[in-house]
Amino acid sequence: MEEQQDRNGRVITITSGKGGVGKTTTTANVGAALAARGKSVVLVDADIGLRNLDIVLGLENRIVYDIVDVVEGRCRLRQALIRDKRLANLALIPAAQTRDKEAVSPDQMQELCRELRQQFDFVLIDSPAGIERGFRNAIAGADEVLVVTNPEVSAVRDADRIVGLVEAAELPPPRLIVNRIDPELVRRGDMLSVEDVLEILAIPLIGVVPADESIVTATNRGEPVALDPSSRAGQAFRDIAARLLGEDVPFQPLEAPDGVWRRMLRALGFGGRT
Amino acid sequence: MGWLDALFGRGSGRVSRGSAQVAKQRLVEVLVYDHVKVTPDVLEAIRSEMCQILSKHLDIDADRIEISIVRSDGGDRLVANVPVRRAGTGRR
Questions:
Q1: A262 touching B (Cβ < 8 Å)
Q2: Which of A83, A93, A267, B14 makes an SS bond possible with B6, Cβ 3.0 to 4.6 Å?
Q3: Taking CA A72 as the corner, what is the angle to CA A70 and CA A75, rounded to the nearest 5 degrees?
């Protein structure tokens, strides 16, 4: 490990307001995609009491120390850093499972972020759901925020609330990830489109992730789908990573799997939902 | 020609009013309330007081007054739609 060369990394918090929209999966996959691009990345699980990021990454058996041990000085920072199995430049600081959000203060999070950004190019913080202490901790040391939402009323409403809180915290306007979009439902007019969501939230878009069963299977195995070259969701996460690196990546057309052939089959009554 | 429409991706979804349109409308309304911090109770109070004042001067159809807060380009607006009865046609 390189000693004391300040990398001056970026601290990016992934949050959503509503739970279950895919924050943790997004954090794991954007982090893995950045690491696969050669960046040094640390993922911080700020969801104290509900530890999950380790599971998504398949690192649950390696945990000795956690974030609360670090801020309370029971271990050195480097002792709590868990190296990923696949990517040498990807690391994780796990949440504590037996404590709660009050175990860490916003000041302590700021200090932790300050130390981490010296050692890593990217510090990605997986925020807990909600708008209380856990969320405030998660954005305390952030330079920028990504808001994850699903194309549904409650998730977008909560995202709107978060956008207001991020702006009130004098951070730059957050960028939006629309997760679990189902192109077929959008086509039928039965799911909010990305354009609908953007029109309502009025913040810049950084990613559109299709609902994709490869996320489920990869998560079952504890493998980031971003490392699967054949996964459309994986590609979406790699695109988000590229945009974070300042690249101008076009958004994948959502109707790609719904070509003329599939439509013909459906029109004739084979396959797909009516 | 339903199968042709389906083949070319038109019809079905977009033409009939899909649930996404309903979702969007509900979302816009709920966010207006979130932003302006006006609860349905307050709106109802506004409605009934407006009704009292207007009734002094006009023969209005109190049951059909619609009051809502809508989002528009110029910001959020309170919109009241007050049906006025014509003299002589005392419906209800």
A1: no
A2: A267
A3: 45
User: Which CATH number fits the domain A10-267, given the four candidates 3.40.50.150, 3.90.1010.10, 3.40.50.300, 3.40.50.720?
Assistant: 3.40.50.300
Q: Where are the alpha helices (DSSP H) in A120-268?
A: 133-140, 153-168, 183-187, 194-201, 213-221, 232-244, 260-267
Spatial separation of the C-alpha atoms in residues A235 and B3, rounded to whole Å: 32
pLDDT, one tens digit per residue, over A102-158 is: 999 999 999 999 999 999 999 999 999 999 999 999 999 999 999 999 999 999 999
Contact across the interface for B30 and A153, Cβ inside 8 Å: yes
Q: Best residue in A154, A196, A203, A255 to probe B by mutation, most B CBs within 10 Å? A: A196
Considering only CB atoms, which residues of chain B are within 8 Å of chain A?
2-4, 6-9, 12-14, 16-21, 23-24, 26-28, 30-31, 34
Cβ-proximal residues to A40 (8 Å cutoff; 6+ apart), any chain = A7, A9, A89, A119, A120, A121, A122
What does the pLDDT read at residue B15? Answer: 46
Question: Chain B: residue nearest A184 by CA?
Answer: B13
Q: What is the pTM of this model?
A: 0.81
